[in-house]
Amino acid sequence: MRLAGRAAVVTGAAAGIGLASARALAGEGARVALLDLSEPEARDAAAAIAAETGNRAVGLHCDVADAASVERAVAAAKTELGHIDVLACMAATLTSRHSVVDLPLEEWEQAFRVNVTGSFLACKQVIPHMREAGRGSIILTASQMGQVAWPGSTAYCSTKGAILQLTKGVALDHREENIRCNSVSPGGVATGRLLARWGDLETAEREWGPKHALGRLGQPDEIAAGVVFLASDESRFMTGADLLIDGGYTAW
């Protein structure tokens, strides 16, 4: 129970890595607020987590690309949880596979609104509550694609590179307030997000798995374990850092 007494807000928490992270945080004793664009899915996931762990879990609607929506969701989370001292930003979007020349401007802008501005807005709203709590650990989600590139994915890779710098900036801005900020960089992870590019997980595993040094895709709970580590006091000497959990993708 490494997180007993903690209260965590997780964005993009209704599925995939976000859901696995919310479940893992609750499993270590944290009360959790699951924020997602799909409120019904967030509520269902929260009910399941509460039943599994015995810890308080609530599901709330949140569009991370909308400042007012983030403000409302964080305020509701604070009311439900009592305080907030962990933030895990897991919400993200993909773009269609195009070169820079062919990528529609609106897709480029949407990728930055969700992946980068969404994390900025969540930090902006949560950090004042962390000040009240006297501590905080923020985990932003970058990617191995913040360090390398992939044809047709320039927008996504650019957003993840920006997250690495946002992490450092937040860490330095709040270094004297007992608020840490780190990022986690997953490699390819077997979630429904891969269906848009690979059609099914079997194809993704067969074609993209070997690009990782370990010869396979990751699992959501493997990334969630890193999120728990960054949220806990075990990582108390880490801030402004990136935890790369990419199966050796960038080691080639």
Describe it for me?
With 252 residues, the chain is an alpha/beta fold. It has helices at 16-27, 39-53, 67-81, 105-133, 154-173, 195-198, 201-208, 220-231; strands at residues 7-11, 31-36, 57-61, 86-89, 136-141, 179-186, 242-245. Strands 3-2-1-4-5-6-7 form a seven-stranded parallel β-sheet, sandwiched between helices. The longest helix is centred in the middle third of the chain and has 29 residues, at 105-133. The mean pLDDT is 97.
Give the class from helix and strand content and strand pairing: alpha/beta
Straight-line N-to-C gap: 37 Å
Q: Determine the fraction of residues in helical runs and give it as a percent range.
A: 40-55%
**Beta strands, count:** 7
Identify the strand order in the major beta sheet: 3-2-1-4-5-6-7
Note the quaternary state here. single chain
Strand content: 15-25%
- Low-confidence spans: pLDDT under 50, at least 5 residues? none
Q: Whole-number average pLDDT?
A: 97
Report on the biggest sheet: 7 strands, parallel
